[in-house]
């Protein structure tokens, strides 16, 4: 197997102690917390976060069972306390380390920290601990609401898996196709509900007494294939059969749109990284700023070392 490609960094003016060590600690900590498939420490931390989040969600679910809560409530309380301490430390370390994202000329440390605190993942990290402190400050709040908020911690895993982000971007990029599919769905729902009202309204007024009630039946039938109503007339059975078939067709259309959008999203990621890679290798020298940009994009797009190596070989072949 060919050795990994070597990237030469342009000469830069080194920082002087103690600023160098502080900057290095912040930057290294930010790299570990951000997640990288090629960094051992980052992968270990990613697994730790995943295990803690999953065990927390499992604890919330099990704690909702009355018998289990009565038997192990002290354990659940202790586990919640140390989990909150862990997530709080993570939030503080992330806020501190993001100060290394921008230099003084680019806005300084607080620019990076504010970007993290008010970003989607920053808010998720904040609300991962908020229920505990809310209950501490306001002990008379409904605990059921706080348990639901604690389940939001599972969103922390989306930081290390781009599936949720890819889904949002895919829906946004194919919004016209999704709008057309939803328009067809609305038409199918209203038409089937109206036909069922005229076919079964007099026979079963408790289920089909009005078109709005029939719309509920139509939605249930399209999404699940069965509208929970038996003993229909022949016309009603035909309408129910056609409505269920339309639901299958709509599911196939939506699945095709999502699959195509995901494929296009992956292609756009590779194209964006390839374009940045071409710019960095245009003069044969990769500066420190260019290397940081490439590393950030690689972590953001979750590209493997093999994918990056293949793209670099392709770019070099284009240049020869």
Counted by DSSP, the helix tally is 13
Order of helices and strands: HHHHHHHHHHHHH
CATH topology of the largest domain: Helix Hairpins
- Helical content, roughly? over 70%
Average pLDDT, all residues: 79
Distance between the termini: 22 Å
User: Low-confidence spans: pLDDT under 50, at least 5 residues?
Assistant: 1-16
Radius of gyration: 27 Å
What percentage of amino acids are in beta strands?
under 5%
**Top CATH class of the largest domain:** Mainly Alpha
| Largest sheet report | none
Helix/sheet category:
mainly alpha
CATH architecture designation of the largest domain: Orthogonal Bundle
General shape = flat
Word description of this protein:
The chain is mostly helical and 320 residues long. The chain folds into 2 domains: 19-160, Up-down Bundle (Four Helix Bundle (Hemerythrin (Met), subunit A)); 173-319, Helix Hairpins (Orthogonal Bundle), CATH 1.10.287. 74% of the residues lie in helices and 0% in strands. It is built from 13 helices and no strands. It has helices spanning 19-34, 40-63, 66-97, 109-117, 120-137, 143-150, 163-173, 175-200, 205-208, 211-224, 234-280, 288-301, 305-319. Helix 1 (19-34) runs antiparallel to helix 3, helix 8 (175-200) packs across helix 10 and helix 8 (175-200) packs antiparallel against helix 11 (234-280). It is flat, with a radius of gyration of 27 Å.
Keywords:
flat; mainly alpha; Four Helix Bundle (Hemerythrin (Met), subunit A); 320 residues; Helix Hairpins; disordered N terminus; 13 helices
């Amino acid at each position: 197997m060919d050795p990994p490609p070597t990237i030469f960094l342009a000469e830069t003016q080194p920082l002087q102690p103690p600023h160098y060590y502080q900057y290095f600690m912040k930057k290294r900590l930010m790299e570990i917390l951000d997640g990288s498939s090629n960094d051992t420490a980052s992968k270990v931390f990613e697994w730790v976060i995943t295990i803690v989040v999953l065990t927390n969600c499992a604890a919330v679910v099990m704690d909702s069972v009355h018998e289990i809560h009565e038997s192990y409530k002290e354990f659940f309380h202790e586990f919640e306390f140390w989990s909150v301490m862990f997530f709080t430390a993570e939030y503080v370390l992330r806020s501190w380390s993001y100060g290394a994202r921008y230099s003084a000329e680019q806005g300084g440390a607080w620019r990076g920290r504010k970007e993290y605190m008010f970003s989607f993942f920053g808010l998720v990290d904040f609300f991962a601990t908020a229920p505990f402190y809310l209950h501490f400050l306001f002990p008379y709040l409904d605990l059921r609401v706080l348990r639901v908020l604690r389940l939001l911690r599972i969103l922390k895993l989306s930081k290390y898996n781009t599936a949720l982000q890819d889904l949002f971007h895919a829906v946004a990029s194919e919004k016209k196709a999704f709008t057309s599919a939803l328009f067809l769905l609305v038409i199918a729902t209203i038409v089937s509900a109206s036909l069922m009202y005229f076919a079964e309204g007099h026979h079963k007024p408790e289920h089909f007494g009005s078109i709005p009630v029939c719309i509920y039946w139509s939605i249930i039938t399209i999404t699940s294939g069965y509208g929970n109503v038996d003993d229909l007339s022949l016309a009603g059975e035909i309408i129910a059969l056609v409505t269920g078939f339309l639901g299958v067709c709509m599911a196939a259309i939506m699945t095709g749109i999502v699959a195509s959008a995901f494929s296009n999203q992956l292609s756009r990621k590779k194209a964006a990284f390839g374009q940045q890679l071409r710019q960095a290798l245009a003069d044969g020298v990769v500066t420190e700023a260019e290397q940081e940009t490439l590393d950030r994009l690689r972590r953001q797009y979750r590209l493997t070392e093999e994918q990056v190596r293949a793209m670099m070989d392709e770019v070099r072949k284009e240049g020869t």
